[in-house]
Structure formats: structure tokens, C-alpha cells
Amino acid sequence: MTQSTLVDSPASTTTAGSSRRRARPQMRKLDYERAFDVLEDCDRAASLPDFKEQMVASLGTRFGLRHVSFFAGATFHNVFGDHAPLTEGNTEKMLPEYQERWSRYDVFSTPAACRQLVSSGVSSLSELSKVGALPASANAYVRHFLQATWGMETAAAMRLELPGGHTALVGMFDGCADKLGPSELSTLRMVSRQLSAISRGLPVTRSRAALAGLSDRQREVVRLLADGLSNAQIAETLSLAEDSVKKYVSRILSLTGCQSRMELALLARSRA
User: Fold this and answer.
1) How far apart are CA 206 and CA 223, in angstroms?
2) C-alpha torsion sign, points 124, 127, 131, 132
3) Contacts 24+ apart (CB under 8 A), 92-95
4) Residue 215: partners with Cβ closer than 8 Å, 6 or more residues away
5) Fewest C-beta atoms under 10 Å: which of 25, 102, 189, 205?
6) Could you read off the pLDDT of 56-85 as tens digits, one per residue?
């Protein structure tokens, strides 16, 4: 993500032209329980696709958020152009018009939102409205698209770090204006850094995750296969019967979801 030199305190929001800061809302037992539950839900992910699905599902289960999207991109500004985001609830129906007309005007692409996302991991429409007037294009996006067309009175985004320095924005929407109050936003901010730590270290595909979970002998077979050896040559190198090597290769293809030896070899080489 493009880093901003204007970094606010994660525990507070600074209004334009003022150095006064709002204190962090006091955390309730429920908030801590939600935080731990979300982290536990997402920590089970074996790959980035699993993480996306579990993150979206967890926000629905733990916060009652039914309209959630997961956008990803190589940089912060690329995120809004994601052609195949994960969508849940009405965000799936909202996507075509968003991509055609509104992505460039997304309220969470504004400088004020960027500062919140960089400093604390979360930005919300309610907080942005208190900082100052939204740019005209972002205001139109909120009024005409989110509110008038889809009835979304709550809108928030969480920034996450992904493997390879990529960035994700998790969009959260609801028709109830106070769905995400100060306590809920503080809880999301509390978990955003830990969620990034989880997502940064995940294999980017399920095939890579499966490759990482192979046994030592299976990894040896994959290494030799990626070097271009035939089954007979692998068998000779590892002192195995050729039939055993065939079974190893078939099992590895099944585990990784690869359709051919060539695909498996390319996967192994890309991971090296």
C-alpha cells in the first residue's frame, strides 16, 4: 500500500485543524470475546483464499454483518479495481454498478480515509463525516449509490496486508446507521494488525498450501519431478519401485489439485 506520512494515532482521530483527540472507547467483555473469536476463525486458514472466506464469514457470525466484500490489489489504489473480489450478501448485486461507475469515487479512497486506514487499520463513514466535508465525488457515491440505491447507512473498511506486499480492503455495510458503533470499530481496529500478521504468511493459492503440507518423501518426489526427471529416474534416485513413484505422483496431484505433471512442476518452481 502507498504509505502516507500523515499518520494518526490508532487510539484516536484528529479533526482537521485541531490537535484534540478522542479517547478510545472502553472495551467491553463482549468486544474482547469478538476479537478473539475473529482471530481464531481466521487463524485456521491454510491459504489466502481460505482466509478470505473465513474472514467474511466471521464478520457475519461475530458482528452480524451480512453485506461484506474482500477486495485485493498490488497497491492501495489497485484495490478498488479488483475484477474478482469476494462478495457476500448484497455486495454481490452491488458489484456490477460499482465496477462500471463508482469504483474511482469510493469514499475509502479519499485522503482522509487513507490516513485512517494506514494509522489504525479501519475507516468508517461515520468518522469521515465528522472530520469534514467529503469530496463531491465521494459524497455522490455515498448518497446516490450506497444510500439511495442500496440503503446502506453503515459503511466501513478494514485494511489488511497480504503476501508479496499486496493490500486488501474488507468492506462492511449495513442498512442500520449504528451497526458499527465506537466499540465495534475499536474491536475491528484491535484485530486488524493481528489479521494482517496471519494473512501475510499464507500461501496465495490452495495448491501452494497443499504443497507446503506434503510429507518429506512427497516433497523429494516433487523436487525431482520439477527438475525434469522421469518416474524411472526418480525411482532410481530415491531407491523406490517405479510403481511406487507413480502412486506418489498421483497422490501429490490429487492433494495439490494440479491437473498434470507440468502444472505441478511449475507450481514447485514458482515456490522455490
Assistant:
1) 19
2) positive
3) 94/145, 94/150, 95/69
4) none
5) 25
6) 999 999 999 999 999 999 999 899 999 999
